[in-house]
Design brief:
- The chain has 377 residues and is mainly alpha-helical.
- 68% of the residues lie in helices and 0% in strands.
- Helix 1 crosses helix 13, helix 6 runs antiparallel to helix 8 and helix 14 packs antiparallel against helix 15.
- The radius of gyration is 20 Å and the shape is globular.
- The two termini are 14 Å apart.
């Protein structure tokens, strides 16, 4: 999902630095573990880790844009784009190279060749609204990185061109107006098929404007000063979330009986219009957790969890290929024990590969950042 990631060695302990929060790293770690658990079938609602990443990205990107100003917009924009490219592009483009080799060798999903132009241009999230789209389990998670890059560019324009007061007002409007934007986009896709509209709505950047905006608002000291104590905000938002979820669940059970789906967005889509308000609720809850984490959180600051957060970018990019390879090693009708073992193996292998990638591949690029908030952001 970015998503901001980072470690000095694969086994080093994360330490607190300027612009660095162990608790936010821990939240990042929880988010990526949830996504991996979802794809392995262990956690039906683990997809929630993706919108959590978007809220975190909104927070970090806003801090980067506002706290690292030189007074020259061109310089600020150049530094921002350079630093984002150094953080995200090397590993992502390496994945694109690997997929291109598969396509040339006539391996991989049958529609891989048609997907490559979208993958190379960070626009794979728009692929569902084009002809010939076919879902796959090898690289379909890379849509979220396209959303990240697209919203980065929008945020850079807003933060660098608008006065801070107007920037804040736009953030509030986006945070509140997220459901309206989703409805308008849905109506604009009236010519598409129902399944295509569902997947496209899930993957378009407009769906996550409110998540980015809520994360951005948590980065503004003037906004935090107007809010109650973070713990109180969290209790209120968590209580509201619990009530709404219970009401929705009761409605679903009454109309449809037991839930047998995986609770993913396309499956939950028809249920009480959750696609309109659900993302805002997830973003608000995550924003409240971020506010608490900014003051320090012992559970989220647990060092192994924070370490996973630091290398989470590599875990996110690499876990689907690891999972698909693991599935090929299983018998045709594996037992539950084998499936559980596969889930554990995917986590461990993905963590190992991500640690190596961070230390020996990603970090040399990150060290070339200019005027960055931190090497991990």
């Amino acid at each position: 999902m970015t998503i901001s990631w980072g470690l000095s060695s694969p086994v080093a302990r994360p330490t607190r630095r300027a612009g660095h929060s162990l608790a936010l790293d821990g939240l990042r770690g929880l988010a990526v573990l949830a996504v991996v658990a979802f794809h392995t079938g262990v956690l039906p609602f683990g997809w929630l880790g993706v919108p959590v990443f978007f809220v975190l990205s909104g927070h970090f990107i806003t801090r980067i844009l506002l706290e690292r100003r030189t007074g020259n917009r061109s310089t600020d924009l150049g530094n921002f784009l350079r630093n984002r490219a150094l953080r995200l592009a090397p590993l992502y483009l390496l994945a694109c190279v690997a997929l291109t080799v598969l396509a040339v060798a006539k391996h991989g999903p049958k529609n891989l060749a048609g997907d490559l132009p979208f993958l190379w241009t960070w626009t794979y999230n728009f692929r569902p609204v084009t002809a010939g789209y076919v879902d796959n389990n090898l690289y379909d998670h890379l849509w979220s990185l396209g959303v990240e890059v697209q919203l980065y560019l929008l945020w850079a324009a807003l933060a660098l061109l608008l006065p801070r007061r107007w920037f804040t007002r736009v953030l509030v409007a986006l945070a509140v107006g997220g459901p309206v934007v989703r409805v308008l986009v849905w109506l604009a896709m009236v010519g598409f098929g129902p399944d295509q509209r569902v997947i496209a709505t899930y993957e378009l950047p407009t769906t996550y404007l409110d998540a980015f905006a809520i994360g951005a608002l948590t980065a503004l000291p003037e906004v935090r000063a107007r809010l109650p104590r973070p713990a109180r905000v969290l209790w209120v938002v968590a209580g509201l979330t619990a009530v709404i979820c219970v009401v929705e669940l009761a409605g679903v059970l009454r109309r449809e009986g037991p839930i047998t789906g995986n609770l993913h967005f396309p499956i939950a889509f028809p249920r009480q219009l959750a696609w309109i308000w659900g993302y805002s609720l997830i973003a608000a809850l995550t924003g409240a957790i971020v506010l608490v984490a900014l003051g320090g959180s012992r559970p989220l600051s647990w060092r192994p969890l924070a370490w996973i957060g630091l290398i989470s970018y590599g875990v996110y990019v690499g876990h689907r290929p690891v999972l698909e390879l693991g599935k090929r090693l299983l018998p045709e009708d594996p037992s539950m024990m084998l499936l559980a073992g596969l889930a554990v193996a995917v986590v461990l292998v993905s963590l190992g590969l991500a640690a190596v990638s961070y230390r020996w591949f990603e970090r040399p690029f990150m060290s070339r950042k200019r005027n960055a908030l931190s090497t991990t952001a």
